Amino acid sequence: MARTLSLVIRNLLFTVAVPGLGGVWVPWRILTRDGRTPVAVAWEATAVIAAGIALYAWCTWNFAAVGGGTPGPWDAPRRVVATGPHRWVRNPIYIAALLVVLGQAWLFMSLPVLAYAGAMALCCHLFVIGYEEPTLRRRFGSAYLEYRRTVPRWIPRPPRRAVRAAAGHAAPAGPDAVHGEVGR
Known about the structure:
Layout: H1 2-17, H2 19-32, H3 46-65, H4 92-107, H5 111-140, H6 142-150
């Protein structure tokens, strides 16, 4: 019970600190920088924002339930996670955050927020190729390399073949780990 509560608290803290700041606070600051309250004009954009939030929640749940960790690199899952969205794309958490920001850009018809989303996408990509992928390769070895070979980085697609961990099973980290990733 204490371990579960600790995991819930750690995931909530991460959610407030990282996607909360980058996906909500920064866009709001951009929208209100001139002192005016932004007016929503494209309410259909709320579906994009809701999809991003739901995807993020699903991924965070999987990181906690299957991997025993959080999306934060400093508290990453201890086990390979290859269930749910991670079977379709290697970085669904970044995609979720971008959906939220792009949805806000659309909702408020804001070019500055759209530009921020572009910068955010570039930063995510550079972080993934410069830090995450090399770290995961070292941590999970050949299992990660096989996962990387079969699951796309950014554009989701149905799984090509069964991923052994997809049935909700997880493998300990290491060179014999089941195909999967703990990427965002």
